[in-house]
Amino acid sequence: MEKTKPKIALLHYTYPPVIGGVEIIVHEQANLFVNYGYSPTVFAGEGRSDNPKIPLIEISEFKPLSVLDPRVNEKINNSIQFPQEFYQLKEKISQKIDQHFKNIDIVIAHNILSLNLNPCLSLALIDYFKKNPDKKLISWIHDPVIFLKNGQIVKKTFINKQLENLVYEPIKGIYYVAISNSLKEILVTLIGYPEKIITVIPNGINIQKFLDLDPVTCQIYCQYYLSQADLLIFLPSKILKHKNIDLTIKVFAEILKQRKNSVLIISGKKNPHSKNVDYVNQVLQLIKDLKLENNIIFLVDEMKKLGVDYNFHIVKDFYQLSDVVLFLSGQENFGLPIIEAGLVKTMVISSSLKIFKEIASSNLKTIDIYHNSPEKIAQILLNAVDHNSQIKLLQKIRKEYDFKTIFKNKIIPYIINIFKNNENCSPLL
């Protein structure tokens, strides 16, 4: 029976709880492989798995040589060629690799082949995959051996030319990934890699973890593909007439004419202290008439669907995730949404109530809702968004650098292509 998913190994010198940027990336990749039904194994010189579905095999010889054996490390770097101790350690590592890689199909080696932190491990890996051409090795490059000299990026000059070749020469049969186009350019123009062998897959960020998002927030965010929204607008309000929800919806309809993949998130719905549902029904009918059902989300309804009581943590999450808070209320005695949005640094566009100006002074974009049409208000909002570099950066991060999106759209297809020997992912011939 043909194997549908390859057995993946992730390899780095160290793994969390050891702290480092590459360690975090390896940790995220391991967990996302599990989420996509793979059974990854992590190999590291030091670390500990925090996921029972991810076995971690700790092999001390995989540590950087400066930690493992500083004397041998110094001798390798200061000798004209590899000393005897190099080959002794390399052979010891080869035995460990032979033992543990038998059932592995693809090894993703993060920074192992591009740095000189443990050249014994580098050569042992290369030799293993030369002897086992049915297996695949990906050199995932975060950092090559380069440094700044007089403002210019230059290669390191090695006393040991064998070490220099090991660090800089691409190897036949190995796949290469660079974490940015800028790094790819360095690898090609400075170090001399053939451009065609390098695939660019950027690093990303776990938005859920970084922003401490509630799991329910993440379910809603993923279910409605909010990461890909042209514009995320948040209205923190129940459906009450004095809040001008109908006006907000008409403005949103105008926004959709220019940003077709935008979403309006309304936090509440009915007023729990009123039996009058006429205005609620009027708003719902307006949404239906304007054909906005697929672009407006009532947060309280989504929570109910997921069996969750109203939770302000989730509301706070959407303050953080949204591009702009739109609050066109006609009457308020205070304005908590102005303060809440300000705390998470989300742009607010509001009606020009005196209380809002009292709270925010001149630090608020206000609109006279009685002398501007919905079309004009929409244009004011879009102009404000388009001239806000922070919002444009947020949108770019949301669309391009969410690790889940990168994993789904780039890493999984790349792994599948390699496993199936797709020519689009050919290593150096």
Could you write a compact summary of the structure shown?
This protein is α/β, with parallel strands linked by helices and 429 residues long.
Describe the secondary-structure layout.
Blueprint lengths: L7 E7 L6 H15 L5 E6 L9 E3 L6 H4 L1 H9 L5 H17 L5 E5 L8 H13 L4 E6 L4 E4 L2 E4 L5 H8 L6 E4 L2 H11 L6 E3 L6 H4 L4 H9 L8 E4 L9 H14 L4 E4 L11 H12 L6 E3 H7 L6 H10 L2 E4 L8 H8 L3 E5 L2 H7 L4 E3 L6 H13 L2 H12 L2 H17 L10
- Find the CATH topology of the largest domain: Rossmann fold
Number of strands: 15
- C-alpha geometry: elongated
State the domain count. Answer: 2
Task: Report the β-strand fraction as a percent range.
Answer: 15-25%
Helix fraction bin? 40-55%
Biggest sheet, strands in spatial order? 3-2-1-4-5-8-9
Report the total helices: 18
What does the radius of gyration come to? 28 Å
Describe, in plain words, how this protein is organized in 3D.
There is one protein chain. By secondary structure, the protein is an alpha/beta fold. The protein has two domains: 8-205 and 402-425, Glycogen Phosphorylase B (Rossmann fold); 208-399, Rossmann fold (3-Layer(aba) Sandwich). Helix content is 44%, strand content 15%. It is built from 18 helices and 15 strands. It has helices spanning 21-35, 65-68, 70-78, 84-100, 119-131, 161-168, 181-191, 207-210, 215-223, 245-258, 278-289, 299-305, 312-321, 336-343, 354-360, 374-386, 389-400, 403-419, and strands at residues 8-14, 41-46, 56-58, 106-110, 136-141, 146-149, 152-155, 175-178, 198-200, 232-235, 263-266, 296-298, 324-327, 347-351, 365-367. The strands form three sheets. Strands 3-2-1-4-5-8-9 form a seven-stranded parallel beta sheet, with helices on both faces. Strands 12-11-10-13-14-15 form a six-stranded parallel beta sheet, with helices on both faces. Helix 10 (245-258) links the parallel strand 10 (232-235) and strand 11. Helix 4 crosses helix 5 (119-131), helix 10 (245-258) runs parallel beside helix 11 and helix 10 packs across helix 16.
